[in-house]
Design a protein that fits this description.
Elements (H helix, E strand, L loop, with lengths): L3 E4 L5 H14 L6 H13 L4 E7 L2 E13 L4 E11 L8 H15 L4 E4 L6 H9 L3 E3 L4 E5 L2
Parallel strand pairs: 4-5
Antiparallel strand pairs: 1-2, 2-3, 3-4, 5-7, 6-7
Length: 149
């Protein structure tokens, strides 16, 4: 499958919000497209997160959202991989891995020490995906870390 990953801008708000709403529903939240759109609009306008969209046939089918953090032991910037979602019709084709790889590249481009994420213990897909992508499980805190070499 051919796909393209691009950094989202305010011009991509509608596509981003639609996927974000589906992501929230996946995590048992009420559907609220408009509130989600407002939330993402604020992130774009205030430059508070970075979103990458994966497109298939010019249609956004997945996204990852990253927030800037700072790590106290590394004494460096890191990124929180806050949200990762691929539409069910496009799962199992490596798009999540591609979004994670793009996030790792973003660490290099922004001179960040790595990525951090947290997921539910019941997220079987994520809990098998993240270690395969080089994240280390932190059993003391239930966080996964990936550190750029």
């Amino acid at each position: 499958m051919e796909f393209l990953i691009k950094q989202a801008t305010l011009a991509d708000l509608d596509e981003s919000a639609t996927l974000f709403n589906l992501y929230r529903i996946f995590y048992r939240q009420e559907s609220d497209l408009e509130k989600g759109k407002d939330f993402l609009r604020e992130r774009f306008i205030n430059n508070e997160s970075t979103i990458f969209l994966v497109l298939v046939d010019n249609q956004a089918v997945g996204f990852v959202q990253l927030y800037k953090l700072f790590h106290y032991t590394k004494l460096a910037k890191q990124w929180l991989l806050s949200d990762l979602y691929v539409h069910p019709d496009y799962r199992g084709q490596g798009l999540s891995i591609a979004l994670i790889d793009r996030s790792k590249l973003w660490c290099e481009e922004t001179n960040a020490c790595g990525l951090m994420l947290e997921t539910e213990k019941t997220n079987d897909i994520g809990n098998s995906l993240y270690p395969r992508c080089g994240f280390e499980y932190d059993g003391l805190h239930n966080y996964y870390h990936w550190w750029r070499s």
